[in-house]
Amino acid sequence: MTSLQIVLAILSGGLVGFSLGLLGGGGSILAVPLLLYVVGIRDPHVVIGSTALAVAVNALINLIPHARQKHVLWKAAIAFAIPGAVGAYIGSEIGKHVPDKQILFLFALLMIVMAVRMSWPKKGAREEMATALQEASGQTQIRVFRVVFTGFVVGAVSGFFGIGGGFLIVPGLMFSTGMPMIAAIGSSLLSVGTFGLTTAVNYSLSGLVNWWVVLEYVIGGIVGGVFGTLLATRLSNHRKALQYIFSGVVFVVAIYMLVLNAQALHL
Prior knowledge:
The protein is mainly α. The chain has one domain (3-265). It has eleven helices and no strands. α7 crosses α9 (181-204). The two termini are 34 Å apart. The model is unreliable at 124-139 (pLDDT under 50).
């Protein structure tokens, strides 16, 4: 890597971390296009393997404060993560053999889905309070088949694309265990870390992880996350507008990737 690429990798990691700290999720979806089109890493599979590890490290770091605040329901989180890790291994194994342009085309479609998902209206304060009361009353329970099946499917998607998959894991945990949003967010970090590590290990066995990029991305992500978190309190009244702007950016980048890789489907 050139010195310019190193700087761009740190800045790109900072941008991802900043968006995660500011918006609370979704920023990692930009990790792949940033490494491809800004940093200039040419091999999409190396990009996917590297971002999977970087996202995993950041997730496990962020798991600590959530665990201290008792936002992690360990039994449900582990039950979801284990079948998900199996799915992530299978998904990543399949992903390694998909041609470059095809996997990027599919990744762009996933970005569009995520952009739409992020623009959906969130729960109101009353609904969040109701789910918190539900947790307090002990109504959270593990539905074994749902947990295993949902964890496996979400893990497979995460492994295939090399993403954290938090935007899939959170609703997956709520669906399969009935846990409230705040607990699902905290518990999801265990799965994000587990799926990312599984994917990264599989990719690294094929020489598809750039360890320097991972280090630079993590360093940038930590610093960016601090600034994003600090700014989040000041811009809390504009959170919805920021969410819409970020969704728009993700959508535009996705369209660019679709056009660039359209020949994957012989368009």
